[in-house]
Amino acid sequence: MALIEVADLDVRYGEIDALRGVTFSIDEGGVVALLGSNGAGKSTTLRAISGLVAPRSGSIVFDGKSIAGLSPQAIVRLGIAHVPEGRRVFPGLTVRENIMLGASNGKASSAAIRREADRMLELFPGIRPFADKLGWTLSGGQQQMVAVARGLMAKPRLLLLDEPSLGLAPVVVQAVFRIIEEINQRGTTVLLVEQNARMALKVANWGYVLETGRLALGGAPDALWSDERIRDAYLGGSQPKASI
Prior knowledge:
Distance between the termini: 26 Å
Helix content: 25-40%
Oligomer: single chain
Shape: globular
Number of strands: 10
Strand order of the largest sheet: 6-7-8-3-9-10
Strand content: 25-35%
CATH class: Alpha Beta
């Protein structure tokens, strides 16, 4: 059953058509990779879903409810969390305080929010020892984990991840993707925007490729990766057909 359905989505920045007629759906419990070159419209798709940009036309239906045009705050409360590119850790706050900012329920007590933040720190053992350190003092990979933990504080049904591996060392990339798999195994549906196509397709059960604002194709990860023409055109060039 589809958790989210996007249909004929158009987004324009001034005179530039960022998205044109984008249509796709994500089943509950899945991990979908959204791939494509820089400027293809991947981040814009996430921003439209999370309410950060207003679609010019088209529909976005989440759990049977139209969310196009709702405020980001309302969309978070419905169960969608967006972890944007760039981590955006607040430098004057500790790691725990950064994570606590992700709590979306204004009715929760500070004690309850702190307990939930402690649960997030258990899920991310790589940052747990630094809970009371300032966020900016952590490495890039650790800051990425803080950003994902902050997104999970909203207890989302759908997590939007924008370039989680950007700028990270390969060993840290492996750790970040292991966490994505664990988040999904705990029941959260994931829409993943990622330049590292091979890693994204390893954790995904379906993939879509955007090209200049249009959805060029979609398919199972193995099918996408094994097609040399697709790798050349959309996924960073020819690489061995070996397993993803």
